[in-house]
Amino acid sequence: YIPSTSGTVKVCGYDVMEEPIEVKKRIGYLPENPPVYFDMTVIDYLNFVSQLKKVDKKIRKAQLDDIMELVGITDVRNRLIRNLSKGYKQRVGIAQALLGNPKVIILDEPTVGLDPIQIVEIRDLIKELGKTHTVIFSSHILSEVQAICDRVLIIDKGKLIAFDEPENLEKLLLAPNEIIITTDAGEEEIREILAQVDHIIETGVEDREGEYVRAYIKTDLDNIYEISRAVFSAFASRGKVLLEMTLKKANLEDVFIELTENSDHGVENKERTSTINKSESEVAAK
Hints:
This protein is an alpha+beta fold. The protein has ten helices and eleven strands. It has helices at about 20-25, 40-50, 55-70, 85-100, 115-130, 140-150, 165-170, 185-195, 225-235, 250-260; strands at about 10, 15, 25-30, 105-110, 135-140, 150-155, 160-165, 175-185, 200-210, 210-220, 240-250. Strand 9 and strand 10 (about 210-220) form a beta hairpin. The protein is elongated. The relative contact order is 0.13. Mean pLDDT is about 85; it is low at about 265-285.
């Protein structure tokens, strides 16, 4: 590990450099590859970890039973870890992170390599954990981040460039909202009709299928439903049919691309410095 050159980090009020033992007691960590021993059974491995974490013997069995029930591995407690599926190994990894009842859970790419069903199950588990723990969830799959996280941090080239709720980050997006339409009007007619509508800053033809044209409309209006109503009325007044109208709103992937491409300018986040997927407000997290 590379030691820090400046600054401080505190977890639940404890400085990581001055009181590392207290900090470690309050953190449960699952790296991308679960730190499990394949030659041990699930229960033996979790017993071993609970001893390393110095979980009180009086509550050890009850805590193990509760955690195995929570993560859904009770039925495989006596199986060798090497014989488990990738999804179950990931659950065992999450279980070891929960031992000792830490306030902060750090999960690094917890769904990598899982099949779609396993991904949904792990997502649901993370949401459940977020009710009682602060969960720091690291992922490059932005649709997953958007589905799970209460707050999002975006880091580019080692610098924090955004920290806010997903919906607020979407509002930061410089690119306007976009509408995709399919109509029986010609290209010139589309431009003439849309010229009558305010707040349209760009139009263009995406594709042509026989007599139908697929075009996009970009607007600087925040209320995309208002502009879509105006577009519909404009086409109706000219007797032209809109066969399809799709509202394309900015998502977290759009935000990430735009912020990282413009990260040299920086993003002001002084007013948005709360926690992410939280139950403990003193810890900046997920």
